[in-house]
Design a protein that fits this description.
Blueprint: H1 4-16, H2 49-63, H3 65-70, E1 72-73, E2 78-81, H4 84-92, H5 96-112, E3 117-120, E4 132-134, H6 143-154, E5 158-161, H7 183-187, E6 189-196, E7 201-206, E8 209-214, E9 218-224, E10 229-233, E11 239-246, E12 249-254, H8 258-261, H9 268-278, E13 286-290, E14 296-303, E15 306-313, E16 319-324, E17 332-335, E18 342-344, E19 351-356, E20 361-367
Parallel strand pairs: 2-3, 2-4, 4-5, 5-12
Antiparallel strand pairs: 1-14, 6-9, 7-8, 7-10, 10-11, 11-12, 13-16, 14-15, 15-20, 16-19, 17-20, 18-19
Amino acid sequence: MTRGIDIKRWGLQALAHGAKMILYQGYREWNCIPIHWGALVDFDGAPTERYTAAGALGRLFAENTDFIARAQPVPSRVALLYDHTNVLVSASMGGDDFMRTALRGLHEALWRAGYGVDFVTPEHLAHADYDVLFLPFAMAVSESAGQALAAFVEGGGRLVGFAKCAMLDGRGWSWNQRPGAGLEAVFGVRESWITVDEAPRFTLAIDGRDFALAGHHHRQDLTLVGGATAIGAWPDGAPAVVRHDFGAGRAYYFGTHADIAAKDSRAYPDAFAALLAGEGVTPACRVTGSGDLQLIDAHLLRSGADNLLIVCNEARERAEVDIHLPGIAAARGQDLMGGGVLVAPAGDGPRVSLALDARDATAIRLMP
């Protein structure tokens, strides 16, 4: 049964993702439907806790109408490529589990590191306004998609690929050189050999930090071309991770399925965070504190210099969190849902401290 706190949390979640209208299914419980959907009033028309919660949301919207009408979520700077043709080719070769786990692994690791991500398809690459683009298990890459990815990097974007990237073309045929589709020049690598290794391990060095990481299923041996630099190594010293400047951008290539290995990993969120931070890409909201932080969902809505921070606790336990907001100029905050909040100004952006009960949510207006 839907509770009032669910109405509050779901409404604020919708607002955080850019919704401008909320439609409730059923104002009054329906006798003709034997499942209680959680209408705002009961069978007799008496208000419920859901009615009270919806009313509180309505007042918040009414008191901030101008801001909400103009505000948009702060856009993600990171995206994952999702190509339906690649999904079909992967499934036809029995690799659908690889594809699914790669998507989940990358999304989970980036989420744990504080980064929201978008998904972009090949036909939209020409207009992809992102700083970094990851290629989860991108085994099939057409010539046109390869050209679009090359243009993305050449124009200043950052590209991250993994083992077997661009192994096949848009028909599912093998490219002569891998990675194919012209991406050899972008990544600065050429496959010299690939072998099954169920537990490949390698080291990665980024900005003075060393990471010991586990790969997955394949070790792809790489020949460096075009002035690329190895920043990761297999135990025998051969290149495992390569960085290559291309045009105004940069590309990274992992010689194993690090996107899959990232699933349920404690190490990869830190490694990917270091890679992104080294490229000057920081999360809009960085959450620390107690509780299940993976289930703390923080988003910023912005209109000009005005910001609204929405925080939802999806966990079944109370959380006490500090949220760092790089690049925001704010000295104080007002909890629009009536709770307490502490805003501590800092040089690189304020830190907002608050406590949220299980399944609770709040909205905080940030002011200079």
